[in-house]
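re: ur msg from earlier - yeah i can do the S-adenosylmethionine complex, just paste it... oh wait u already did. ok heres what im feeding in:
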Amino acid sequence: MKLLKNLFLGINAREARSLSIPVPNELMRDGERRNGMPEKQKNGALVFARNFIAHPQMLGSAIPSSSFLINRLLGKINWGSTRIIVEFGPGTGCFTGEILKRLRPDGTLIVIEMNPAFVRHLQNNIRDPRLRTFQGSAENVAQVLECAGIQNVDYVISGIPFSTMPPDVRTAILKSTSSVLAADGRMLVYQFSKKVLPHLQQSFSRVETDFEAFNILPARLFYCEK
Ligand SMILES: C[S@@+](CC[C@H](N)C(=O)[O-])C[C@H]1O[C@@H](n2cnc3c(N)ncnc32)[C@H](O)[C@@H]1O
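and the outut:
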C-alpha cells in the first residue's frame, strides 16, 4: 500500500484511473470518495490482483494495462477493413472492451484465456454477440479457429508473458499464430521486456518496435507482419 501511495505522488486521480489502478481516497474529489472507480473496473482490478498472487508467472503483471498502452496498440489497427481479431490473454478484459468499442458491427473477436477465473469474469461482465470466449492456451489457436469456423484472422493481439513461459510453448504459439494470420495479417504484442524480439523476428517477415512509458510497468510493443 505504501508503495502504491508513493507511486501516486506524481500523478492525479484521473491519471491514476487511466493506469487502471485503484485511486486512494485522499486523491479523490469530494463526490468521488465512495465510488471513485467505476464498479466494473474496480472489480476487474481486484480479480486481477488476486489472481496475480495465485499465478504470478501466468499473469506477468499485478495491474491491468493502462489506457495509454491500449490506445497506442489499438491505434495500429485498420478498423475499417478488420473483420476478425484474436486476443491472447485478455485477463479481466481491459483490451477486450476497447476492441469491441472499435470493431465493426459484423466483426468477430475471439479471446483465448488460460485462467478460468478470468474467463468467468469476462463471461459475466462483457455481453456482446461479436465476442467468443475460449478457455485454454494460445497454443491451441488453430483448433479454436477451426471450432469457430474461421480460416484466418486480420490481427492477433497478445499480452501473454512470452519471456517466462517454457521455450517450446513460446515456439508453438508463435508458429501457430503465424499460420492463422491472413497474408496481410499482423500480430501486435505488448511485453515488459525486449526478450521476445529475436523469437518474433524468426517467426515474422518484419517486426517494428515501439514503447509506452505510461504503464505499470513501462511496456515494449512489437508490430509483426506475417
Ligand atoms: C499480462 S496479463 C495481460 C492481461 C490483460 N490483457 C491486460 O492487458 O491487462 C497476461 C494474461 O495472459 C494469460 N495467459 C498467460 N499465458 C497464456 C497462454 N499460454 N494462453 C492464453 N492466456 C495466457 C494470463 O492468464 C493473463 O490473463
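cool cool. The CA atoms of residues 5 and 24 lie 7 Å apart. ping me if u need the other ligands too
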